[in-house]
Design brief:
Number of domains: 1
Number of strands: 0
Distance between the termini: 32 Å
Shape: elongated
Helix content: over 70%
Structural class: mainly alpha
Number of helices: 4
Radius of gyration: 16 Å
Largest sheet: none
């Protein structure tokens, strides 16, 4: 048995991803400022982007896309 789920509308998925990413990056950069400021710039960016990618992939986007499924796959106005 296969489940067929509609594909999200690209611009809507991009919008949701951008907004979630902006929030996560802002929170992580502010909360981790003392830790990140103590690191060299290259390590700081690697650490920050690594934390953000992990959070977005496994904690933020799955519930967000489930919650906004009707918006993401709905009819284009």
């Amino acid at each position: 048995m296969s489940r067929c789920t509609p594909r999200p509308i690209r611009w809507r998925l991009a919008l949701v991803t951008w907004l979630a990413l902006a929030i996560v990056v802002t929170l992580i950069s502010h909360l981790g400022r003392p830790l990140f400021d103590a690191m060299p710039t290259v390590i700081d960016m690697v650490a920050l982007t690594g934390v953000v990618v992990v959070l977005m992939t496994w904690l933020v986007m799955p519930p967000l896309t489930r919650r906004l499924a009707s918006f993401l796959t709905g009819p284009v106005p």
